[in-house]
Structures are given as C-alpha cells and as structure tokens.
Amino acid sequence: MINIINRISSGTFLVFLALSALMLTGCLASSGGPTVDNSETSRKLESLPRPKGKRKVVTIYRFNGRAKGITGRTATDMFTTALVKAGRFKVVERQRLGNVMREKNLNRSGRSTGKSSLYKLRGADYIFEGTISEVNNSKSRSRVSGSYKGLGAGTGDNTGSIGLDIRVLDARDGTVLDAINVRKEIKSANASVSGIGRFISNFTGRRVGGDIGVSKSKNESVDEAVRACIEEAIYQIARGYQ
C-alpha cells in the first residue's frame, strides 16, 4: 500500500480509490434497455384462464387519492391496463371519452371513412372504483453507524406502506358487488463510507490531501408499489368472474 502511494500522487490515488469503491457498490452498473413488465403480479394476471363465453363489460372513471409521485389519473391508467391484462373483462374507456367523440364527429361530418358515428358507446355492466386509502411513509426506521481511524461507515433502512381499496359496482343500480383492500410495504436502504482520505493518512502515516466519501441507496418506488397493489386486487377479484 505504501509503495503504491509513493508511486502516484495523492490526488490520483484518491480518484482511483473512489472509482473502485463505486464499482464495488454497483453504482456504475448500466441500467440496461427498457423491458416489458414481468413482475410477479403481472404474471399472475396474465396467467388467468380466459373465459370462453361472453365477457362482462367494465370500466373505471377515476382512481381517487394520491401518493408521492402518483396522481389519480396515473393510477386510473394503471388500473385500466391491469383490467385488460386480466383478460376476464371487456374494458371500455370512460376517462378519455373526448378522443372517442372527436373521432365520431369526424365521421359524422364525412371527413373520415367507415360508420363509427352510427354506433352507440358500449354500456358497462360493472364499474370499478379505487382509492389510495393508506399512505405511511415511515412505519419503521433504523440506523447503524461507526468509525475507525477516521473511516466512518453507516447503514440504514426505512419501511413504509401503501394501501388501496377497490370496489365493484353494478352499473344498473349501484349495488356494491365486491370489495377488497390490498396493502404493500415499501422499503428503502442506504449505506455510506466517509473519511477514506483520513483513514489512509492515519493507517499509513503519510498525509493524503483531500478526502472521499461513497454512498449508495436502494429505494422501492411508490409507482411500482401502487401498480403491484392494483394488479393483486384485480387478480383476486377477477378469479370470481367467469
């Protein structure tokens, strides 16, 4: 170690050490290209047997509530996607009817081909309602830290949770046909090392200019947690509809 430090400058050595630490913690790893969602809950939805007969027509108007980074509109889009993935229902659009009506108006005015303006919108048999009903950013938290010869290290983790309530309404009379609540923990963890330069100075007895710290954190995203809850809820509900 002393021979290496004697051969190269302190600054160069610190840069080399920092890069090595980053590579060891995986901070320089490439995230790769985009992929189709293959999460456990997504696979469960797509594994549901497809009905052979007529499918019930369903829709959702709006998902209520919000969490950090998630709006009601975003959650509604996730819900619609999950309903289609389940393959048990025929899903009709209600959130963006303006696009459908514009297309019908184009056809009615003779500016587009086909006969879409002659058809009525398909009515829904069931209406889904969803609410982000629970948000707990910090159910539990822990932190451990220490130091040795100027080298400091620490680790910590935080556990939060998010919960959804889903209801199925009969479009004919508003009867609540089914309801389910789903909850998921959201975990985050971090680790850090500081005082690398001081540690080298204290350990080797040779003064090293400057200092370096390395940290890494891993956080489960709220949007992934919301999507997982939505997919699990639809999976549980869809199994009861043939």
Written account of the structure:
The protein has 242 residues and is an alpha/beta fold. 33% of the residues lie in helices and 33% in strands. It has one domain (2-20, 54-238): Rossmann fold (3-Layer(aba) Sandwich). The chain contains 7 helices and 6 strands. The radius of gyration is 27 Å and the shape is elongated.
What key attributes describe this structure?
242 residues, alpha/beta, Rossmann fold, six-stranded mixed sheet, 7 helices
Question: What does this entry show, briefly?
Answer:
The chain is 33% helix and 33% strand. By secondary structure, the protein is of the alpha/beta class.
Topology:
Layout: H1 2-7, H2 10-24, H3 40-46, E1 56-64, H4 72-86, E2 89-91, H5 97-108, E3 126-148, E4 151-170, E5 176-194, H6 196-204, E6 214-219, H7 222-238
Parallel strand pairs: 1-2, 1-3
Antiparallel strand pairs: 3-4, 4-5, 5-6
Helix pairs in contact: 3-7, 4-7
Q: Please name the fourth-level CATH homologous superfamily.
A: ABC-type transport auxiliary lipoprotein component
Shape: elongated
SSE-based structural type? alpha/beta
CATH class: Alpha Beta
Total count of helical runs of at least 4 residues: 7
Rg to the nearest angstrom?
27 Å
Do you know the CATH topology? Rossmann fold
Q: What is the strand tally?
A: 6
N/C terminus separation: 70 Å
In round numbers, the mean pLDDT is 82
Reported for the largest beta sheet, the result is: 6 strands, mixed
Give the ordered list of helices and strands. Answer: HHHEHEHEEEHEH
Low-confidence stretches: 4-16
How helical, in percent, are the residues?
25-40%
Please list the strands of the largest sheet in the order they lie side by side. 2-1-3-4-5-6
